[in-house]
Amino acid sequence: MTSFDASLEDQGPRGTPAGGARRAVPFDLKGTMAPLTVLRLRSLDLAIIERHLRIKIAQLPQLFLNAPVLIDVGTLAGHGAGLAIEELVRTLRSCKLVPVAIANLADELRERAVAAGMGLMQQAAGRPRPEDRTAATPNAAGESSEVGHAAGRTPAPSTSAAPPRTGGLAPAAPASGHAGPMVITQPVRSGQVVYAQNADLVVLAPVNPGAQVIADGHIHIYAPLRGRAVAGVQGLLGARIFCQRLEAELVAISGAYLTADDIPEARRGRPAQIHFEGGECRIAAL
Amino acid sequence: MSKVIVITSGKGGVGKTTTSANVAAGLALKGKKVVAIDFDVGLRNLDLVMGCERRVVYDFVNVIKSEAKLQQALIKDKRLESLYVLPASQTRDKEALDPEGVGRVIEELKTMGFEYIICDSPAGIEKGAQMAMYFADEAIVVTNPEVSSVRDSDRVLGLLAAKTSRAEVGGPPIKTHLLLTRYAPLQVKKGEMLSVGDVLELLGIPLLGVIPESKAVLQSSNKGMPAILDETTDVAQAYLDVVYRFLGEEREHRFIEEEKRSFFGRLFG
């Protein structure tokens, strides 16, 4: 999914003097990538869907309250054939979610979806894969995007358009309510993005320059951190980053970040932890 | 049993084509039936380095597009009996490469009894490079002791693990080898160049060999004769070591400064 920016404001001929003849447009129209929860259906049974959804929501009510939701039926055999669209939309609304659109819907169902107030999207959010929770080998996420969010909240200065890899919403919640951490055993290489959604991330190999590791919870790296690490990306202020050797390009927690230049020389190359305090990231020895 | 080997790097100018020519010639010297395919469609070079540019009639793209038979496009080396080159097209672009066509050519080479199919990758990570690596069983990642080259190699290693036939069907991962080229121990000592240890620490794959910086490489390229054929040069010695190691023989690493040896003892002992 490529990000594109269609700001109409800048469409005028080049060389127009600033403040000159440019006509005032009453709005900016932008194609953008906003964070959007994807509900990728694996079943047509609304009762089961609702039950699992309510379990999920009960775990993280603040995350799901009034959250816009994209319904992806691309994984279903008939691309939504046999799905009670109106009923599903009602169910989601009753769960205090805001369904906004349906992706990968079969052509003959499009009118019904529109009638139910849904937008239509094709090819949303990458292709799902059958097993995606624990990744021994991270994929080059720039290429094989596989996402639960249509766009990840990248840290403030990040220019990466690569959607982070996630575990997805779908797997049924274990009875304990603890999803467990995502564990990565292979090096995270330049250009790869690993995202532990609703979980901590444990990395047992180096995170190389140009790579990015993201988690909703803590990030533990039992090896050098040379790329970017973003913990608490959904806003968990208590999230921390731990690494055996801090050589990061960037570390961020809940939107606050430090670049390589901000990391004091005395802390570089050593075991460190990063936490959020007083609105900024703090580095401490480990 | 055929093996498909991709010679790749991400970054340009690090020695992929030189390595392809020398590894192919070296394997042929050992009596193996070898073909080297130039995947750099539009920037054909391998035929020059291997000295067969004047005999190119048909090329890889002609074969993919079924405009010529594979036998018509293969060029037999004049010096080595069992060495063949499949040249790239200079006039097309990388879009001419498609997985079905490339796969068909590689299958046909296998049935012709080629033991080693060397795929010389173009620079970059776009279509040409991805096609070169797609069917590989093993990869030789060529890296210069320099940060940008190392980072590009790291990126390529990620692609090898994700964007290849083996990765997609869930087969065993591609076996990767590191080849460090243009290495100058003196500059390493002065701190002007990354050491073998630095590079290995970042990339974390086994070292196949170190090729010293040498004028012999340029001379051999211009002559159209792979450096490995002139055994008096250190480059030839280094590439011979690489070929022996690739075939499973133990050879001590050379052309690295003396004090680094103990480090290797630890790493590979």
* Helix residue percentage of chain B: 40-55%
As laid out across the biggest beta sheet of chain A, the strand order is 5-7-9-11-14-15
Major sheet size, sense and barrel closure of chain B: 8 strands, mixed
Structural Rg of chain A: 21 Å
Largest interface by Cβ-Cβ < 8 Å: A-B, 18 and 13 residues
Q: What sequence of helices (H) and strands (E) makes up the elements of chain A?
A: EHHEHEHEEEEEEEEEEEE
H and E order of chain B: EHEHHHEEHEHEHHEHHEHHH
Whole-number average pLDDT of chain A?
Answer: 75
Mean pLDDT level of chain B: 93
Main sheet: strand order of chain B? 3-4-2-5-1-6-7-8
Tally of strands of chain A = 15
Shape of chain B: globular
Output the radius of gyration of chain B. Answer: 18 Å
Distance between the termini of chain B: 30 Å
User: How many distinct helices of chain B?
Assistant: 13
Query: Given the helix and strand composition of chain B, which structural class is it?
Result: alpha/beta
The biggest beta sheet of chain A reads: 6 strands, mixed
In short:
The complex is a heterodimer of chains A (286) and B (269). Chain A has 286 residues and is α/β, with parallel strands linked by helices.
Strand and helix layout:
The complex is a heterodimer of chains A (286) and B (269).
Chain A: E1 37-40, H1 46-59, H2 61-64, E2 68-72, H3 85-94, E3 98-103, H4 110-115, E4 119-121, E5 182-184, E6 193-196, E7 201-203, E8 212-215, E9 219-225, E10 228-231, E11 241-246, E12 250-253, E13 256-259, E14 272-277, E15 280-285
Chain B: E1 3-8, H1 16-29, E2 34-38, H2 46-49, H3 60-64, H4 70-73, E3 75-76, E4 83-86, H5 99-111, E5 116-120, H6 127-134, E6 138-143, H7 147-162, H8 165-169, E7 175-183, H9 185-189, H10 196-203, E8 207-212, H11 215-223, H12 234-246, H13 261-268
Parallel strand pairs in B: 1-5, 1-6, 2-4, 2-5, 6-7, 7-8
Antiparallel strand pairs in B: 3-4
Helix pairs in contact in B: 1-12
